Structures are given as C-alpha cells and as structure tokens.
Amino acid sequence: MIYLLFLGLVLAHGSELSDAEALHELAFQQYDEGQFDEAKATMLHSVALFRAREGDRPLMLASALTNLAGMLQATGNYEAAMELVDEGLDIRREHLPESHSAITHSLIAKASMLQSMGDFASALPRFREALAMRRALYGGEHATVAEAMNNV
C-alpha cells in the first residue's frame, strides 16, 4: 500500500519531486489518515534521504525536520523533537535572510514546543520575535500576523 501511494506521488509530480520529497508528502498523507507510526517511519526515511542525497543540510531538510518534530511532539517525545526544531531553525538561518517567513515558522514551532513542555517563560520571547517579524513582513492586518498574535 505504501509503495502504491509513493508511486502515485511520483507519477503525479513527475521528475520535479525527489524521492525524499515524495516520502515527505507520503508521511503527511499517512499522518492525516491516522497512521502515526507509519508516518513517523516514512518521515525518518525522508530525512535520511535528504541528508544522503542532497548534502548534509539542504533547505528542504529543515521542513522535514520541523515536521518530524511535530510528529514526535504529538507522541510526547519533546527532547528529540526540540533537537529537530533547533536543527531546522539553524538550517533555515544558514540558507535564508533572517527576515524570511520560514524563520518565523521555525520560531513558532520552537515556541510551541517550549509551551507544550510547560516552559512559558522561554516560549513567550520566541512568540514575540515571530510576531514582530511577521508584522514587518506582512503589516498589521495579515492573517499570519493574527495567528502570531494569538500565540502571544
């Protein structure tokens, strides 16, 4: 079954989708279908392929790490999830300007993780930093700014 889903993704997107990206997308489908253990295993495979085939720290790896962290967080594995969020943020900062929206996504992921762990004092400054960055990027009336405001 997994092979058929994977094959369908590759056929639908053609050569524009790497194996690692296709597995990344497949993991989301599995997660959405409630196949949490399978999704985590597929995402781990995706991360391994990103590292092996595209270099140690390609930008797409940051997304895969952050998404895997979310899966680990959902199962209560906060320590491993935090390491992945931190690595994803570091990768994004290596590849992108500090004002990029993907950086705000990583900051919110990190703050949400800290909040889930009960560390509100550490979470709040990261939520505020993400809010300030989103206001600078989008202005005060954008939906992503409202989302960031709800976090604070």
> In which range does the helix fraction lie?
over 70%
Biggest beta sheet attributes? none
SS class? mainly alpha
Any idea what the radius of gyration is?
Answer: 16 Å
Count of DSSP H/I helices: 8
Mean pLDDT: 81
Give the overall shape. Answer: globular
Question: What proportion of the residues form beta strands (DSSP E)?
Answer: under 5%
Low-confidence stretches: none
Order of helices and strands: HHHHHHHH
Written account of the structure:
This protein has helices spanning 2-13, 19-32, 36-53, 59-74, 78-95, 101-116, 120-138, 143-151. By secondary structure, it is an all-alpha fold. It is globular and about 40 Å long. 80% of the residues lie in helices and 0% in strands. It contains eight helices and no strands.
What's the short version?
By secondary structure, the chain is an all-alpha fold.
Essential attributes:
single chain; about 150 residues; mainly alpha; 8 helices; about 80% helix
Present the secondary structure layout.
Elements: H1 2-13, H2 19-32, H3 36-53, H4 59-74, H5 78-95, H6 101-116, H7 120-138, H8 143-151
Helix pairs in contact: 1-2, 2-3, 3-4, 4-5, 5-6, 6-7, 7-8
